[in-house]
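Fold it.
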Amino acid sequence: MNQMEDLRERTVRGGLAKVVAQGVSFFVRVGSLMILARLLDPKDFGLVGMVTAVVGVLNLFRDFGLSTASVQRVHISEEQVSTLFWINMLVGALLASVAAGMAPFISHFYREPALMWVTVILSASFLFNAAGVQHQALLQRDMRFTTLSIVDILSISVSSTIGILMALKGFAYWSLVASTIAAPLISSLSYWIASGWRPGRMYKNVGIRSMIRFGGTLTLNQLVVYVAYNLEKVLLGRYWGASVIGIYGRAYQLANIPTENLNSAVGGVVFSALSRLQEDTKRFRSYFLKGYSLVLVLTIPITLVCCLFAKELISVLLGPKWQEAVPIFRLLAPTIMIYALINPLSWVLFSLGLVGRSLRVGLVLAPLVIAGYLIGLPYGPRAVALAYSSVMLLWVIPHIAWCVHGTIISLRDILIAVSKPLASALVAGGVAMGCIELFGEFLTPLGRLLLGTSVLLSGYVAMLFYVMKQKAFYLDIVRTMRRRATVEKGLVPA
């Protein structure tokens, strides 16, 4: 088997493993949220959300972008990896100290004394994360995605179980704290066991300056984007209180779970493959567009389900005490598709080393989104959600055009990839709403959700496969995931 066939086989198998793992992760996360939403109050979620919105900024520095740099490099030495490990540990210890030192400020800022010890305990997660960064990068670099998938499932399952058991015992918001810090601890321990790699000492002059520069630019970019996407939670918590941020935060979490899971399932695999294909433009374009199309075809109908059946989803997933989250969730739902459109573009930019462009894009996006928050803040969480979605919707086309400019991917490629699944979903959504109008009044919220979702998805597949004539393309993706890659085959979206 030649190198390209081997890369293709590992990519296909890795993609299948990640998709399965993220599917399991999705159901575990949603199931955990359903249980915890019924055991805990909105204020419990709000208290932890207040801390994570602020301390989460530090989380962006946990590996200083060095794990991505490790994967992106075509060649990397043992000395370089060991040195990067100790740099990560030093950064982790520093971040843990800074987070713990911020505890009094956070407690005073939100006027919530309980946040003092919540912040101190959560600061330990920085050390836990740092310990496994390079081990995870080595597994990803070797394209051991089945192993990474098992670790993901183990981590989220055990941490969710810990949170639920503590909530049942009456630990309130501490159950969320325990679940949050358990996840990185379990992951890092598992990465050490799975990789079998043990760090050596730190070395000097081993050629990591360019990697640190790459990682630093990437981290700065992530910082800018994080502030843009999370400042509204800090502001809502400060001016509207813990209960409001608890409600807004759960709506935001539900809107982000589909995109996070799908992008994580496909993104790590595609990024690793693209990093190995930087000089093979034909295969680079083919790999990207296949991964991009897969994310879109799965995300677009989810977006419509969330928009059309927000009330039913909140009722079924969170329960009756969360009805205030319905309009917020419906307003945030369009961002599911927007993220699916723009997030995968980072695969192209990072694999080609264009982190500087990614940073410039973020520096333009951030003030636009923040301005939207500030306009909506005086009017409450609904206005903030509306402003957020509106700004992102207006920004999406300029964002795409800027990211792909001068690369092998064109804006036309992106528009073609999105046009057919989007048109199919809109038609299917109209049919689904017609069915709900006819029969919905006789059904429970769960019944309406099942009916509407079933009709929408069935109509979507029928439109996409037979009217838009995309059946061969998407079934080819499935067949590729199931067979050994013994025959090289060009697969470019029609």
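Residues 3-39 form the longest helix (37 residues).
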